[in-house]
Structure formats: structure tokens, C-alpha cells
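[job 4417] fold queue: 2 targets
>>> target A
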Amino acid sequence: METPDSLTKEKDHKDLSKELKEVIFSEKTADAVYNICTDNGIKTDRISKIAQVIEDVLTGLLPPDKFQETIEKTGIEAETAEKIALKIKQTVFSPVEKSLASLYKTETPSSPPIKDTYRESIE
């Protein structure tokens, strides 16, 4: 039986690019995240929280610029969070940078051109 959370996740993933879906479900990504976290002394229970934050970035729920701040909120020291964030950005987010940029692209309504009413006289 599907839970509301799994339905939400499925819906969130449905509109993603193929490239982002591949990164989210990739064993290579999971291994990279695990290795980066363990290299920085993070315990297994916190690794899953960091993985969830990474998924939130990749699905459009959390802007990439809030990534480090959010993993700090999981109880990780700022210096360690900075190291982890840098490595995750290099290994996970950088290869899909264009897809992430289009995912987070915000369009602003265009305003009509402003008419220039100032005119200098020509002598």
C-alpha cells in the first residue's frame, strides 16, 4: 500500500528530467554520499538525513544555496557541514548543474518597455 509520502515523492519525481532521476536513484550517487559522509566522521543515522537533503535539492524542494545550512541543522558542525557540502556539490550537483539550473529557474514577469520621453535638441 502506498503512503501519502510515497505518493508525494512519486509525484515529485515524475516531472524531473531523466538526468536528475538517474542521479537520485543511482548507486554511484549513494556510494559517493556514503563515502563523503564517512570520510568526515558522520554516523549512519545522519547519513540518511543528508541523503534526504540531497534528494530535496535534486527534486526542487530545497534550493542548492540552502544545502549547507540545512545539513548543519541535522546536528553537524559548521566546518564539517562545509566540507561535506563542497564535496557533494562537486560530485553530485556539478554533473547535473544545467538540469538543476532549469529546475530552479524562476521566471519574472516581463514589464513593458519604458518610453524614453527625454529628448535633446539637435543644433
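>>> target B
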Amino acid sequence: MTMGKSIFSLYLCTRQSNKNMKTLLPVAAVAALLLSTGLTGLSRGLRSEPRTDRPDTLVINTTEIGKDIRGFNGPTPLEIVLVDGIVAEIKPLPNQETPGFFQRVTESGLLKAAVGKTAHEAAIHHYDAVTGATFSSRAVIDNIRAGLRSLETQKGAE
């Protein structure tokens, strides 16, 4: 793996004097942490970034992973948040989809259909496209699957 923009940032929440600190770990510590947690082989799009006191949060950004997955007007990247291996949240990232059509996708419950499932369950789940926003919803579905399958591929490569 080369150093540069494609490298992910790994943060660890720690407690020091009853105060939460966000500390960027040095490269050697990152490697040790990855080896000890079984998350070796992480690539672009995957990073561990706790949003709370929980260091067991993994965020998958499909901007690179799904760069070839297109909605009606272009890529539709997502941010998939997993806590303890369970999908906690899926958020759309900025995209070029027609706002009215993409709003149908966000209001349909499609982004919440994977919440509460394991990464594997969510990757193989049958999602229904949203009527009137088929291209956008198919792109969202394909990004969910691509992001979660990339996690499975990384874990399988260990």
C-alpha cells in the first residue's frame, strides 16, 4: 500500500483524565491495532473513525469503491457506518442526481433497509428500487452492496 491521499485515517477514542481525546495514531500503532483486531488489508474507502466513545465503529465511504456505479446523472456515493459489525447508518454523500428524484430515494426507507443487519446480511439483502427514481435507487443499492462486499473481501484476504 502506498502512502498518500488514498490512505485512510484511523482514529482511536481514548480516555485521559476523564476527557475524551481524539488521537491520530502513528503508522506503527495503526499496524499493530489492525493486526490485533483482524482488520488488516484495509484499502481506500474503509476507515475506522469512531463517532462516539466507541472504537468499534467502521465507516465505509463508497466514493472510490463505487466510482463506476452511476445513477441517472453520475456516481451516488454513500457513507456506511457499522458498529460492532452491524449496519448502524447509511448516508448519501454529495451527488449530481436530480434532487426531487433523489429525495424519493431518501424518503423511501431504502437507506434504512440495511440498518440492524450484519454487513453480510445487508450485502445480500433484496432491496426494491424506488418507483420514479429507478436509476438513483439502483445506484444506491449497488453502492451499499459494493461497500459491504469490499469489507468482506478485505476480511477474507487476511
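[job 4417] complete. Note on B: Strands lie at 11-16, 19-24, 46-48, 57-61, 78-83, 86-92.
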